[in-house]
Amino acid sequence: MTPRYRELFEVNPTELNLPAVVAANQGVTYAQLFNAVRACADKLHAAGVKAKDRIATVEPNTIDHVVLLLALWSIKAVACPLSARLSPRAIESQLSRIQAKRVTSSKFVEQSSFSVSAPPIHGVSYEPSQAGTILFTSGTGAAPKAVLHTLGNHIASAHGANACVALGPGARWLLSLPLYHVGGLGILFRCFLARASVAIPQTNEMQAQSLAGDGITHMSLVATQLFRLLNATQDYRPLRKLKAILVGGGPIPRHLLDTAAAAGLPVYTTYGMTEMASQIATARYPLPATVLRKRKVKISPEGEILVKGETLCAGYVNGGEIKLPVDKDGWFATGDLGTLNRQKHLTVVGRKDNMFISGGENIQPEEIEGCLNNYGVIENCVVIPKQSEEFGFRPVAFIQGRTGGLPGRAGLDRYLLKHLPKFKIPDHYYVWPDSDGHSPLKTSRRDFAQRIQGGDATLQEIN
Fold first, then answer.
1. How many angstroms separate the most distant Cα atoms in the chain?
2. What angle separates helix 151-164 from helix 182-194, to the nearest 10 degrees?
3. How far apart are CA 257 and CA 50, in angstroms?
4. Which terminus, N or C, of the chain has the lesser number of Cβ atoms within 10 Å?
5. Cα(175)–Cα(187) distance, rounded to whole angstroms?
6. pLDDT attached to residue 3
7. Which residues of the chain have pLDDT under 50?
8. pLDDT of residue 436
């Protein structure tokens, strides 16, 4: 059944005074939010923005930014949030690629618009089938792709996610991911669907005590954020009060999850991708991730994870062209390798395009990384192939240590040989560069590969 939009953006009279979005110095109810959205939509319309226009925003997470996104959807424009971390040239390149115009919330959102009208506005009209967003992927390997979603994709994603992680009035989800990331945008849809509130942090720093004091009940993190959160305090009692800590965005070191679980934290692991409007499979750790509602998953004969369902995007955008690469039965190839059992428990092995052959043997970098990440003194690592005259390719590893330094090569080799065959032991270990150029959400294998292929003289080998 196609979801109706009033489920998400039209509330009952008794729900109008529930908090919708809260920040350090401001909070708005659903009634105030809808009023501001209506006023912003009127200003956008007066400025000539019309249905199907692609409108880009390059802004931090703010209440005004949320209002602007909702207002764009209300006039059936396509919201295209871009990363403010990009260089001006990169932003212009993305704008050109998706043929979008850039606007700012400061021009269209006024503080006076948050005043509640009489009678109050109960919601804003939307169509599930309308094009809603263009988001750029943040994958670890290939160049980012521009992905077009309908609003129905986002709503279906929120329905399935909320069926797994309970959410409702009174809950407060920390917007700890940027709105240009599908994981951040998904928080808006999940909260508004459940009449919960979105909490915008004042800074990127997350402290256990401040989270408890701000009434946070849910949060979404990548592995690096979870690591920093756990290491920022010795007192986990405030974190135990949370309802859910959703961790995803890439491989997660098992020792990190074990530490969180041993501390009694409600950690959920999730596997997802931009093309599927965020989550595909989720479960509370240590249970295996289970395929969520409104998604379908199967494994190809080659072991690749294939997906389809109501959350699958409309396609990739390149100028005026929109193409969705699916097979004759509508299955989308994720590029990830994995296994799926009869209980719909999904296990992700690694990226198909990361695997390489060394002397006739298949090597999956994620397997080596998983072992290294379980070594107690390693915070992060990346394994990539390096050309070899004898073997074709051999693995090398970049390693980021925790406070206290790194073990030597001999120690690393001894540890890995307990878990892996000798041909999978890296030929070289390098110290993690001070500036690797990757976003805070994901590590770019391409950047590390370019350092090796280009013979970066600044690389420091671990002996």
1. 78
2. 70
3. 46
4. N
5. 7
6. 41
7. 1-7, 141, 436-440
8. 47
Q: How far is CA 222 from CA 183, 299, 360, in A?
A: 10, 26, 35
Query: What is the CATH number assigned to the segment(s) 15-124?
Result: 3.40.50.980
User: Which sign does the torsion angle of CA 177, 180, 181, 183 carry?
Assistant: positive
Output the CA angle 104-9-187, nearest 5 degrees.
65
Domains 15-124 and 127-352 share a fold: yes
Superfamily designation of domain 355-453 = ANL, C-terminal domain (3.30.300.30)
- In the numeric block, the tokens 């990127």 are attached to 204
User: Could you tell me which of 219, 211, 200, 257 has the C-alpha nearest to residue 237?
Assistant: 211
Domain boundaries, the chain: 15-124, 127-352, 355-453
Q: Hey, what amino acid is at 400?
A: Q
Which distant-in-sequence residues (6+ apart) come within 8 Å of 395 by Cβ?
Answer: 358, 363, 365, 368, 383, 384, 385, 386, 424, 425, 426, 427
- Please report which helix (H) or strand (E) contains residue 356, including its range: strand 356-358
Query: For the segment 100-143, what is each residue's pLDDT rounded down to a tens digit?
Result: 999 999 899 998 888 887 677 776 778 888 999 999 997 554 57
* Dist CA 333 CA 54 (whole Å): 27
Query: What distance lies between CA 55 and its chain's CA centroid?
Result: 21
Question: Which CATH class for the 127-352 domain?
Answer: alpha beta
SS3 for 267? strand
| SS3 per residue for 205-264 | CCCHHHHHHCCCCEEEEEHHHHHHHHHCCCCCHHHHCCCEEEEECCCCCHHHHHHHHHCC
Q: Between vectors from CA 430 to CA 426 and to CA 435, what angle results, nearest 5°?
A: 140
Calculate what percentage of the chain has a pLDDT beyond 70. 92
Strand pairing category for 101-102 and 78-81:
unpaired
